[in-house]
Amino acid sequence: MKAILAIETSTKDYSVAIGTESAASVRLTTTRFEPDFDGIAGLVDKALAEAGIRSSDLAAVAVDIGPGNLTSVRAGVAYANGLAYALDLPIFATDSLSVMAHSVPADAPVLALRPARGVASSEVYAGIYVPGRPASLSRGDYWVIIDELATSLAEQGFDALTVVGAYRPEMTDVSTSLKVQDGGPAAPDASTLLAMAQAGEERMSPGPVGPLTEESETFL
């Protein structure tokens, strides 16, 4: 039985999902501030039990490497690396912006946003996903990124934009040249990460993988 374990810990809300070839996926969530929080390992153990499998039944591990809450991201990445090493499993690693963007239809441009300095700051991580083009990740001032994106999309002939992640309500006032819609979700989810891993076997790697932070080359 081939099974993939997906681990999402880029916010205070942790989620894990397990999918197999012969059964519906199992998804469990917890919040790291809950009194009975017993860590990622405890959440994974519960998910394995609910799926009716053992860790030895896993064929791969998927993990969100951020950006997000750095402490939480590092915890998830460390657990994924340790489990993959112990069981000799490949790892599917992707960023949190792509996980959110993957949850909506790809027939129009998608903008994924995450706060880089807290919600009170205008500094964000942004992922831009335009049909037929490679994803573009950046970090900078929210208003500058949005203004440049609106202009670029209009020049390319697009008239609509779907926004996921943070600052979705504010987007409705940004540009009158684009039809902006709130695509949700507000944060990444392990179920979407699992679906990406199931469809992206060619992107599996031996590991280990590292977290994506503001100091990563992607955002410099």
TrEMBL record:
Q: Give GO BP annotations, semicolon-separated.
A: tRNA threonylcarbamoyladenosine modification
List the record's Gene Ontology CC terms alphabetically: cytosol
InterPro entries for this protein: ATPase_NBD (IPR043129), Gcp-like_dom (IPR000905), T6A_TsaB (IPR022496)
Q: Where is the Gcp-like domain?
A: 40-113
* Region annotation (Disordered) ranges: 201-220
Cite the SUPFAM superfamilies for this sequence. Answer: Actin-like ATPase domain
Instruction: Specify the superkingdom.
Output: Bacteria
What's this protein's name?
Gcp-like domain-containing protein
Annotated source species? Micromonospora maris
